[in-house]
Write a structure and sequence with these properties.
The structure is a homodimer.
Chain A: E1 10-14, H1 21-29, E2 34-39, H2 42-49, H3 61-72, E3 76-80, H4 86-96, E4 100-103, H5 110-113, H6 117-141, E5 146-152, E6 167-172, E7 175-180, H7 188-207, E8 210-216, E9 219-220, H8 246-256, E10 260-263, E11 269-274, H9 275-286, E12 295-300, E13 303-306, H10 307-320, E14 327-330, H11 348-351, H12 361-373, H13 406-411
Parallel strand pairs in A: 1-2, 1-4, 2-3, 4-5, 5-8, 8-12, 9-11, 10-14
Antiparallel strand pairs in A: 6-7, 11-13
């Protein structure tokens, strides 16, 4: 499966322990890239402190890398490192000499960013400073390196006009200018990604940074080519209210016979993609280095669905397996438009050869089977939203009453 | 001069020791508001560490407040506090119960933000976290309080279309939506202000924050109604390459007989305003509290000038006083468009009664006279830019070689 390593294909994956990070690291390693995976395991810590751990018992990076080497003869080097530590990061970049740097090292949960002052401030500072450090490490140590940043389709929000791919030409009072497409996200997490874009766009314009911003929709799926080779190579799979993405959560709910929890009426429309397509998009992005100073933006999803439609597809696939699943509507804990126009473009990756793995009954049946095999590990207390975004004043604890135990504070949120 | 204090007019000025902060605190205090000025003196520290102190020997806030009380019988309470400390800030907000909170507590120098990794990271973290804390302190402790944020016209950059006041209606493929006017600033400092706007806009939409964003152009001037009453009430006046704004610097250069340093050909156009008009705009803003969830944006300048035109006006005013001033063109240390379209709107404050103090020869003559009286205090080594923004890789020091003395590092930048 491995090929000879290419000196021009050296990639660092920041956040290499994540749902996307680890499969991405394997994907590149088995395709001839020299790969360094960096993580500080902060998602694992937040998950284990909040009863939100992965369905699978995923080993940490050194063990994962050993397993990958045994099974595929491909190599991923792993480094335990907080990307907020600039000296440590810049040393890695200087020594590894990457041609591309994937930045997935962000706190990825929108609900977590909307919980308390502490979780909000952590999200803000982690996400902004990891981006800042990634930019500076490249500019100072590897100026031609391509920064590939994981953004989200959520940054665009749900405007009443067609969503273009990153940029828009505005015609105004007889004159024209091209701008970044306006962004206005539905959570602090999404807002930090918008702020990342401000930083990256600035350093592209002023310091010749080469960058790609991947505006990705919610990802679903369990397996990639590599994860099928060994249980030790599985990526994490969250189905809780903090880290679980919607389709993955529906699949787990169907397996344990709990109604699928649709927030509100479920007419919110979003763009989704399979984990396998996410890896392929990232690979396509990495194979095309922007010019110095160029910020390339690509919308990374393959299909749009209303949430209720997604739930109905899971019910249908479960039925095919003889599982009777039902749907429950919860009051929406998020601040979202119930009905809205949504027409985002997504030409970039299709034009470059992406052949989407669309959401079929077969895909869902496969997911349901894997989750069923792990049914005994499912904690059914994790499905219901503990964090309500839908209120005027965020947080709840005054500063002087900061409790000793964060868990206690979080539980009452 | 003082009037009875109004229980509905209670204002906190974050950054109350600044060029704008202190005159603003006095302006509100002498007009019947109850005023609390907060500062941690970080600008003073940066200035004194980098040979960039104010022309005047301004006392710190407690002494300034005493002087104000003696001269006007008006009261400003001062608190020494880092706005990055959320517990301390939220306690002040809880106890003071402000109806408005002015946020000037940012690192205000664009060149400083473009110097080294350390100065950039300080600017980023200080500006983002002070804004974040100001938002949260209001939402948790005084949810109806009006956040007034000092933005800058520089956030808009110099686009090829007319600059509206904060918002723009975009018509695209037969549909329409109103968005924040696109922002793309020329320095990291400007970019942090754009990121502030992202945060404020988000918390307005999702938590009902009431906010006004003042998109201010460069301010010039020395005196306000209150500063004329005592030398102890003077605001700071910077003429150096770090904190000095362009017109103030030209006036000082003219007084000491050094050619006025125009960056490049000087055809860059910007919107300017007198310090007196800045205070009036802030007052108008404070008298109109937005609805819950509303973000009001106002362009705060009175006239646009090309930089070379400004320099010529200073030469003319100096000539009137018998001072022979000349102009020198330096290579532009900034990354700016030499020639550009620039047509920003500024109706908001004029519609609400602002009568601008335009830049006349008399204004400049007054400034030249005050600076001449302080001629012996001028350090002529401070005029030339030490910080070049105009290069590919920012910073210059690798992390492992971080020098013990910051001064040494800065000097070689």
């Amino acid at each position: 499966m491995t090929t000879a390593s290419d000196p021009d294909r050296r990639i660092i994956v920041l956040g290499g322990d994540g749902y996307l990070g680890w499969p991405t690291a394997m994907h590149f390693a088995t395709r001839g890239w020299t790969v360094c995976a960096v993580d500080n395991y902060s998602r694992r810590e937040i998950a284990s402190a909040n009863n939100a751990s992965s369905l699978f018992d995923n080993p940490k990076l050194p063990e994962r890398c050993n397993a990958l080497r045994r099974v595929t003869n491909s190599n991923v080097v792993s480094v335990e490192l907080d990307v907020n530590d600039y000296c440590a990061l810049s040393q890695i970049v200087r020594e590894f000499r990457p041609t591309a740097l994937l930045h997935f090292a962000e706190q990825p949960s929108a609900p977590y960013s909307m919980w308390t002052y502490e979780t909000a401030r952590f999200t803000l500072n982690n996400n902004i400073n990891t981006t800042f450090n990634a930019i500076w490490a490249i500019l100072q140590e590897a100026p031609d390196c391509h920064l590939i940043k994981l953004g989200t389709m959520g940054e665009y929000g749900t405007p009443n006009i067609d969503i273009e791919e990153g940029w828009i030409d505005i015609h105004h009072r007889g004159r024209s200018e091209r701008f970044l497409f306006p962004r206005q996200g539905p959570s602090l997490y999404h807002t930090t990604k918008i702020m990342d874009t401000d930083l990256i766009h600035f350093y592209c314009r002023h310091c010749g940074l080469r960058a790609t911003d991947l505006m990705q929709g919610p990802v679903y799926g369990i397996h990639t080519e590599e994860t099928r080779l060994s249980d030790q190579l599985l990526t994490n799979f969250h189905y809780d209210d903090i880290f679980g993405t919607v389709l993955n959560r529906f699949v787990v709910q169907a397996v344990v016979g709990i109604p699928l929890t649709v927030y509100g009426e479920g007419r919110q429309v979003r763009g989704f993609l399979n984990l396998i397509d996410s890896l392929r998009c990232i690979e396509i992005a990495a194979l095309e280095t922007p010019k110095a100073g160029q910020l390339c933006v690509a919308n990374q999803f393959t299909q749009t669905f209303a949430i209720l439609d997604l739930a109905a597809r899971v019910v249908d696939a479960a039925d095919f397996l003889g599982i009777r699943a039902t749907i429950d509507h919860l009051p929406n804990p998020r601040m979202e438009q119930a009905d809205h126009y949504y027409n985002p473009t997504h030409r970039h990756f299709v034009d470059r050869g992406l052949v989407p793995n669309l959401l079929t009954r077969e895909t869902l049946v496969d997911m349901l089977k894997v989750v069923s095999e792990n049914r005994s590990r499912i904690d059914t207390s994790r499905f219901y939203p503990r964090i309500s975004w839908n209120r005027r004043a965020p947080g709840h604890q005054r500063c002087e009453a900061r409790p000793a135990a964060m868990d206690e504070e979080r539980r009452t949120a």
